[in-house]
Specification:
There is one protein chain. This protein is α+β, with helices and mostly antiparallel strands. The chain contains 17 helices and twelve strands. The strands form four sheets. The chain has a five-stranded mixed beta sheet, sandwiched between helices. It has a three-stranded antiparallel beta sheet with strand order 4-11-10. Strands 6-7 form a two-stranded antiparallel ribbon. A hairpin with a 5-residue loop joins β1 and β2. α7 crosses α9 and α10 crosses α13. The radius of gyration is 21 Å and the shape is globular. It starts with a helix and ends with a strand.
Length: 416
């Protein structure tokens, strides 16, 4: 298959279940290559790592020539897009990115995470208790995604932000639709774009009401703290505040669900590692890091060149969109020997599972905490877990690696 065909295949839903042979072929044939629409794709660890830190690249896709050409074809108002204050800081550059990220970081300070672990443990055990009540003494099948991996991070971030429990189901639906917006919009179909935009509008409408509630009745949650920072003089518009909260809710939810599911799937496919984890639950942290390398929940990020530059043998013009294949870089044999092997004992330092540089995932410490706790609980409480099907379905994402479901047969669930 030619490099062009390999690049086009990344957009094919048929490769979602296993994109790694395509990544490996790209590394061998064209680690830096021009693809459809003039997009440049980078697949090797060293250049991806360097480009994530390169200030000559922008995270704002509105600066992409391909995106602006697509907008013009759609007859969209370019000025309105450029003036959108609700653009999350994930997609902004300094100084706006620095200012907004600093405010958002207050929600996930180390002290907050230290106090959260007992609550995360209690939530994980509660979810498994509910599954146990349904399973009964003789065992059956549980869906680890729907019954554990998805509800836990939603509950944690919902409690942090003060979202009423009755509303979290709606937030989960919006988050699922909004996750498609992580893919560059000009690579999405019309239906996917429409669903993402509807989710954005619904999210912001809901948050506007919630913010009004917090102004009238402050609480002890992060949203109240962000409002207090704004009222104390922090440069933060209402639209920017909503953008921060949407990002914390949606990005934290989706990434963590995928991390937990991918890690548990890897353990089920490597029963020796599952047995070791069961006997030594503290290995969960190493399993999480190897999952971030081996089967990253975020497979790629896009950037825009702010100036002409050269990557390897490829000349990149200002305004070019680059797809940085994090998951391919994490399996670069030049950086990680025998990269296809799942090995929690390996040195995973330098993996790009949470990105790198100024836009590295802000919620990484929380995702690590939640995944570690859940894996410990699953390993010690599920009796004889094994995959209930050989046919796993993945959601039709380009940037995210998201299992639709993870059915696991068990002989029972032990008490906490």
């Amino acid at each position: 298959m030619s490099p062009t065909d390999l690049l086009r295949s990344l957009l094919d839903p048929a490769v979602r279940a296993d994109p790694y042979p395509v990544y490996a072929a790209l590394q061998q044939q064209a680690p830096v290559a021009e693809g459809p629409m003039g997009i440049v794709v980078v697949a090797s660890h060293a250049p991806v790592d360097g480009l994530l830190r390169d200030r000559r690249l922008s995270s704002d896709y509105r600066r992409s020539g391909a995106f602006r050409a697509w907008l013009a074809e759609q007859g969209a108002d370019l000025d309105a897009w450029d003036a959108d204050e609700a653009q999350p800081f994930l997609l902004r550059d300094p100084p706006d990115h620095t200012r907004l990220r600093r405010l958002a970081a207050s929600a996930l300070a180390p002290g907050t995470l230290g106090r959260l672990e007992p609550r995360v443990s209690a939530l994980a055990d509660g979810l498994l208790d509910a599954a146990a009540a349904r399973v009964g003494a003789h065992g059956t099948v549980i869906d680890v995604v729907a019954e554990v991996a998805a509800p836990l991070p939603l509950a944690v971030i919902g409690e942090l932000l003060g979202v009423p429990e009755r509303d979290r189901g709606r937030l989960q639906t919006w988050s699922r639709d909004l996750a498609r917006a992580i893919d560059p919009p000009f690579l999405l179909g019309e239906a996917e774009r429409a669903a993402a935009w509807r989710a954005v509008e619904a999210f912001h409408g809901y948050l506007a009401d919630l913010i009004d509630d917090r102004r009238r009745e402050p609480g002890s949650d992060v949203l109240t703290a962000l409002l207090a920072a704004r009222d104390a003089g922090a440069a933060l518009s209402d639209a920017e505040l909503r953008g921060i909260v949407v990002l914390l809710l949606a990005a934290g939810q989706e990434t963590t669900v995928n991390l937990i599911a991918n890690a548990w799937l890897a353990l089920l496919r490597h029963p020796d590692e599952l047995a070791r984890l069961r006997g030594e639950p503290t290995r969960a942290a190493a399993v999480v890091e190897e999952t971030l390398r081996h089967d990253a929940p975020v497979q790629l990020r896009d950037r825009v060149a702010l100036a002409d530059l050269r990557i390897g043998d490829v000349e990149v013009a200002e305004g070019t969109t680059l797809l940085l294949l994090l998951a391919a870089a994490n399996r670069d044999p030049a950086r990680f020997p025998a990269p296809e092997r799942f090995d929690p004992d390996r040195d995973t330092s330098g993996h790009l599972g949470f990105g790198a540089g100024p836009h590295a995932c802000l919620g990484a410490p929380l995702a690590r905490l939640e995944a570690r706790v859940v894996l410990e609980r699953l390993a010690t409480r599920l009796r004889n877990p094994r995959l209930a099907t050989d046919h796993l379905a993945y959601r039709d994402h380009i940037a995210l690696r998201s299992l639709e479901a993870l059915p696991v047969a068990v002989d029972g669930i032990a008490t906490a």
